[in-house]
Design brief:
Helix content is 37%, strand content 16%. With 292 residues, it is α/β, with parallel strands linked by helices. Bound molecules: zinc ion.
Length: 292
């Protein structure tokens, strides 16, 4: 038997009919903190595990913050994480490992660590750019990542006023990075917010940041709690909880298991009409739905 034919038959023998395609559409997530991706982890799971998408993640901060709630992780890692000096030295490496362990659950392919300082819970986004991060460098780095990655879709947090300034900052820098690229090579970009089953308050944009404008539109939504499996006893909260459980140094994040049932996505006004249609169609192809 010719070697090529033997090889083909052998490979065929190891190919499960349930195997998802390996060269599907590609998505870049831009988030501030390791654990932010939990807010749309069920969508990532569906995209990768059920539809063969390739998902990368660009993390803006080094993840050294939030150490005060790391108490229960201290014996696991063998260091006093609630000590500020120890946290500053240890947490960036620990949090990267936690992020990648959670990413292995939902199938994240690649990571870009931008390692900006992760200090304090603040709401004022201006101070993030002027005092905390090198905003210009982050924007240029994200532009380069987007251009080289040839992504179909970028996902950010929706920069609502009440969210952490780092979340708003990461979304704004992703939008600026996209805006700096020629329109012909820009992927679609959407902002996400976790919520319940009820209709959500509309967000039209963050004052002073015109790139964050979101036109009035029905979001695309994933209901994590749609019944799955035998007798409908499973749902996508399970895979989100698997991811959250990997973030053991993020103490309060553990209390968000089963919190929030609907992952919603809105397309920013910076998208062209064709980009909005392509981005929405992509999310719908993963099994999400348009919310009435
Ligand atoms: Zn966060």
């Amino acid at each position: 038997m010719p070697v090529a034919l033997l090889l083909a038959l052998t490979l065929q023998g190891f190919t499960s009919p349930a195997t998802v395609p390996t060269h599907g559409p590609s998505i870049l997530i831009v988030t501030a903190h390791p654990d932010d991706e939990a807010m749309f982890a069920a969508t990532v799971w569906k995209a990768v595990r059920e539809h063969g998408a390739q998902v990368d993640l660009a993390l803006v901060t080094d993840g050294a913050g939030g150490y005060r709630f790391s108490t229960l992780a201290e014996p696991i890692y063998g260091v006093n994480l609630t000590d500020p000096a120890v946290a500053r030295a240890s947490l960036p490496a620990i949090r990267k490992k936690e992020l990648m362990a959670g990413g292995a659950v939902v199938g994240i392919r690649n990571y870009f660590f931008l390692d900006q300082p992760d200090e304090g819970k603040i709401l004022d986004v201006d101070s993030v750019f002027t005092e905390l991060w090198d905003g210009g460098w982050v924007q240029r780095r994200l532009s380069s990542i987007i251009e080289k990655g040839k992504y179909d879709l970028i996902l950010t947090f929706l920069p609502v006023p009440s969210t952490h300034a780092h979340h708003k900052g990461a979304a704004i820098l992703a939008l600026r990075a996209l805006d700096s690229l020629p329109a012909s090579i820009r992927p679609a970009i959407a902002g996400s917010m976790i919520g319940g089953g009820e209709a959500v308050e509309s967000f039209s944009g963050l004052d002073g940041y015109p790139l964050t404008v979101v036109p009035a539109q029905a979001p695309v939504v994933l209901d994590r709690e749609q019944p799955l499996g035998l007798d409908g006893r499973l749902n996508y909260q399970i895979v989100v909880n698997w991811l959250i459980a990997e973030h053991k140094s993020q103490g309060t994040m553990q209390t968000y298991m089963n919190a929030g049932s609907h992952e919603r996505f809105w397309f920013y006004a910076i998208n062209s009409g064709a980009s909005v249609n392509a981005g929405r169609d992509l999310l719908l192809s993963f099994g999400l739905a348009t919310e009435d």
